[in-house]
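F.,

This is the one I mentioned.
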């Protein structure tokens, strides 16, 4: 995503969220390049395979308890 129509739309939506006091979550961060570009837009949260594969409830609870081993092989 560069400075094109998509970028302007996402940036505008995120600015609207900030002005209204809402959190924003952007899904689809599949690699470091996408995460870096989108991260520059200052969304509240980013999610996707770049950070973790999908996990079942049991594994999710382990992640919440600090078990980072589940994310081995993925960026942290």
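My design for it:
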């Amino acid at each position: 995503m560069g400075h094109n129509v998509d970028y302007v739309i996402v940036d505008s939506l995120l600015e609207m969220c900030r002005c209204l006091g809402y959190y924003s979550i952007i899904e689809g961060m599949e690699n470091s390049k996408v995460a870096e570009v989108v991260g520059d837009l200052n969304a509240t949260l980013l999610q996707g395979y770049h950070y973790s594969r999908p996990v079942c409830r049991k594994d999710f609870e382990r992640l919440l308890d600090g078990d980072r081993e589940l994310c081995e092989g993925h960026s942290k």
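The chain is about 40% helix and 10% strand.

Talk soon.
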